[in-house]
Amino acid sequence: MILQHYLWKDGTEMQNSFSGLLRSLAYQALSQSAEEATTDAILAAFDTNAFLAAFANTPRRKYDYEWSIEDLERLLVTLLKHYPQPVCIFIDGLDELHKYDDSWKLARLIKDVSEIEHVKLCVSSRAETAFESTFRGFPTLRVQDVTLIDAVLEKAEGIFQWVVVVMKDINAGIRNGIGLNGLLSLLEKYPRDFDDYYLDMWERLSGGLINDKQKAAKYLQQAILSQ
């Protein structure tokens, strides 16, 4: 089963709220479960009694606004836990939530759902404290990292030693707080040819990107040894 939701801050309440996200995912899960229940194997594997028992004491709801955030969370998580097949959930734009406080609730929900063995999630967001803190240690991929890596590989033209040498300066730039645009500009200044790189490096010993003779000598030694 595949579920998806795209948050949009300038959209309707259903598009930019935590409640809307929960309703959307729960509706998709219930709809797909109903469709797939026509297969005997799915119906037999789904523990209907356990699912209904979890809501035995839940009052009957007549209107949508009567469902609290807690009710919706419990509905979604319970359904996912009892679903008998793998589930994949895609959520785009976590930072587009209208209320910042809900970011922590959403982050906690995602972390809880990720602990369900047969459920996998793929989410995207700009950097926000709630998500960076909660998802610390989770596999991540930053767009700027891909952009920089692709640029380095393209310019290296398969020369591994060139990558090693250039990445030393790029890492130094990152430690010094240089942003992505600055790093890309830095990369553009490096000659593609290895020999030209070291010639350029020696010519700029008094300033510029590399201003340390000892460092330059070390790089030159690496180049000689790599021949």
UniProtKB/TrEMBL annotation:
Keywords: Repeat
The Nephrocystin 3-like N-terminal domain, residue ranges: 4-126
Name of a matching Pfam family: NPHP3_N
Protein's name in the database: Nephrocystin 3-like N-terminal domain-containing protein
